[in-house]
Amino acid sequence: MDKSWIRDDTSSEANGWWWSGIPQFVGLSSLFATLFGSSSPMFNSAKLLVLGFIIETGRRLFQWLIERFRLQYSMTAQFDEGDPSYEWVVQFLTKQGLWRRTREFRVNARNSQRKWGIRTRPEGTVKDNAEYVPTYEVPQLFRWNGYWFEIKRSKGALGIQPMNPYGMHQSVGGGTIFITIYSLKMAVLSDFVEDARSSYLEVSKPDVIIHTADTPNFNPSFAWSNVKRKVRRRLSSIILQEGVIESIVKDAQEFLDMEDWYVGRGIPHRRGYLLYGPPGSGKSSTIYALAGELGLEIYSLSLASGFVDDSFLQRAASSIPKRSIFLIEDIDCAFPRDDDAETPLDFLANIPGLPRRYSNGIRRSAVTLSGLLNVIDGVGSDDGRLFFATTNYIDRLDPALLRPGRIDRKIQYSLATQPQAAALFMRFFEPPAPVTIQPKLMLEVPSTSPPISVMVTAENSDDIGANHGDKYNTSLRQLADSFSSSIAPGEFSTAELQGFLLSCKNQPEKAVADVSDWMAQERKDRQERKEREEVRKRKAQEKQSSLLKGQYAYGGQVKAMQVTGSLPVASLTVSPPDVPISDGSIGATANGDIQHDKEKDDHQELLPSPAYEPRDESGVSLNSEKVVST
Ligand SMILES: Nc1ncnc2c1ncn2[C@@H]1O[C@H](COP(=O)(O)OP(=O)(O)OP(=O)(O)O)[C@@H](O)[C@H]1O
């Protein structure tokens, strides 16, 4: 039997072409030999070509099999940056030490922003100004709880919807982490996520985590674009009337503990608080301290941000996890102000369909009342969260917002009382809270501190601390009493008093001696500010009487226009959205934003732009036809 198609030792190994046995095996060797002659270079090239083809086919087949295997026996989870679960996973992976195999890092300057990077030195080292965040750009394998996991991260890009390696829709604007688990048990994934979350909560304990939305983003899952951390503040550092802060904490804790009770009775598990009062009275500080005490994260939104409208608010609110605080600061900016009607731009704000953005030069919120109510307790609201709102002007809020179910507790803050001033004084100059002294450890208190600044050792700390501290505290209390009795109750905010005390750090006697002068100076400054404000208002009113009132040229047409005041030419240099901003002081951009150029805010500038002549619906120039001159 002719076996030459199986092996040809002489022509393969002898020439070093041991692998050329493959084409021989498939019977092509003799075919090529016949075609090209066995010693021809063409013969060898043809063999190489076939070999390459076979190897490539084999490789693809192998890949295909791996892919089938992956599809059959694994699942992939996607974590988008901006979603809280992304934070849990990144922190968890960093803690697991997975970064050790990473060769790619992003370097961030250290600041209050949390990136879950790796420190190269122990915490507190002076030369620790940057941290190194593993990027996981290259897939990495790791084992968790006996299962194999593969991790891969891909970058997002603003405005593009990039394809990801698993064919899923990827986040626009942030990175995305994909975790493939080689198991089909969903429980493995949920256990992993839960584990990551608990680890994250544990690590975050010393801080309060605050999520904010700083940039416009159109991705549904990417509203909270920024994460910051603040050192937890002790409840005792908030000086309010007795029992107030404790009652808020108790109320919030009860709410969190009673989810079943709410569900069992069919009552939505939501609770809303409104903290209102003058600026600098401790509203925000209360919320941060509460969050630290209960271990909750804060999702804080400012309705005055230009990009926050109803739809953004809805998206942002719906991505807040349970057991968190949803905070809206200065909620009043979503409501009209009493003096709005008097402002020169008022008529612009009343145009149907045009968001109320500016009033008297002040940016207003694009959020509507119904949009706001919807996220607080409408279909767009989620259960299990504490809702907090702060305002300096409760009177501006719509009663609909204040009804129970939306706002369940209203807490009033006021300017500092005398007992508050005394407590603040004590907080400032009291020796720091007792330090747990380890045996043999020396504690050096800086020499600039009040009299307690002695060297304390483990052996003698009790004697020194007790005697000296008591004496010091007694005299401090006396100083606090004289300080507070000089303060006019209800005239200054706690923040203002704090600002003054900061100028007398470690000098309680100086604070007492200087406080009257400081108050006198403050009163003088206030009086001057008030006078400046009155002049500004008067000027604005005078200007307003000569400004145009009417309807806004929206959608490309001026519907009607009416003039009040003394302008000889009645026209308005407001551009319709499709016309560039005119040369006057008021203009509109293509997205309906009103632009108000204060520099040019002179009625002379409100003459018609040569480039734009307002016309009515039939195309007749309003300058000549309908405009009335007074
Ligand atoms: N009652 C208070 N107890 C302790 N510190 C206070 C108190 N009120 C104000 N402060 C201090 O004043 C500063 C400003 O306080 P905070 O931001 O909480 O005031 P606010 O009422 O929220 O002001 P705004 O209405 O302007 O937002 C903080 O540094 C805080 O420590």
Automatic annotation (TrEMBL):
<dbReference type="InterPro" id="IPR003959">
    <property type="entry name" value="ATPase_AAA_core"/>
</dbReference>
<dbReference type="GO" id="GO:0005524">
    <property type="term" value="F:ATP binding"/>
</dbReference>
<feature type="domain" description="BCS1 N-terminal">
    <location>
        <begin position="49"/>
        <end position="238"/>
    </location>
</feature>
<keyword id="KW-0496">Mitochondrion</keyword>
<dbReference type="Pfam" id="PF00004">
    <property type="entry name" value="AAA"/>
</dbReference>
<dbReference type="GO" id="GO:0005743">
    <property type="term" value="C:mitochondrial inner membrane"/>
</dbReference>
<feature type="region of interest" description="Disordered">
    <location>
        <begin position="577"/>
        <end position="630"/>
    </location>
</feature>
<comment type="similarity">
    <text>Belongs to the AAA ATPase family. BCS1 subfamily.</text>
</comment>
<keyword id="KW-0812">Transmembrane</keyword>
<keyword id="KW-0547">Nucleotide-binding</keyword>
<dbReference type="InterPro" id="IPR003593">
    <property type="entry name" value="AAA+_ATPase"/>
</dbReference>
<feature type="compositionally biased region" description="Basic and acidic residues">
    <location>
        <begin position="594"/>
        <end position="605"/>
    </location>
</feature>
<keyword id="KW-0378">Hydrolase</keyword>
<dbReference type="InterPro" id="IPR050747">
    <property type="entry name" value="Mitochondrial_chaperone_BCS1"/>
</dbReference>
<dbReference type="Pfam" id="PF25426">
    <property type="entry name" value="AAA_lid_BCS1"/>
</dbReference>
<feature type="domain" description="AAA+ ATPase">
    <location>
        <begin position="269"/>
        <end position="417"/>
    </location>
</feature>
<protein>
    <recommendedName>
        <fullName>Mitochondrial chaperone BCS1</fullName>
    </recommendedName>
</protein>
<dbReference type="GO" id="GO:0016887">
    <property type="term" value="F:ATP hydrolysis activity"/>
</dbReference>
<dbReference type="InterPro" id="IPR014851">
    <property type="entry name" value="BCS1_N"/>
</dbReference>
<dbReference type="Pfam" id="PF08740">
    <property type="entry name" value="BCS1_N"/>
</dbReference>
<dbReference type="InterPro" id="IPR027417">
    <property type="entry name" value="P-loop_NTPase"/>
</dbReference>
<feature type="region of interest" description="Disordered">
    <location>
        <begin position="522"/>
        <end position="546"/>
    </location>
</feature>
<dbReference type="InterPro" id="IPR057495">
    <property type="entry name" value="AAA_lid_BCS1"/>
</dbReference>
<feature type="compositionally biased region" description="Polar residues">
    <location>
        <begin position="620"/>
        <end position="630"/>
    </location>
</feature>
<feature type="compositionally biased region" description="Basic and acidic residues">
    <location>
        <begin position="522"/>
        <end position="536"/>
    </location>
</feature>
<keyword id="KW-1133">Transmembrane helix</keyword>
<keyword id="KW-0472">Membrane</keyword>
<keyword id="KW-0067">ATP-binding</keyword>
<keyword id="KW-0999">Mitochondrion inner membrane</keyword>
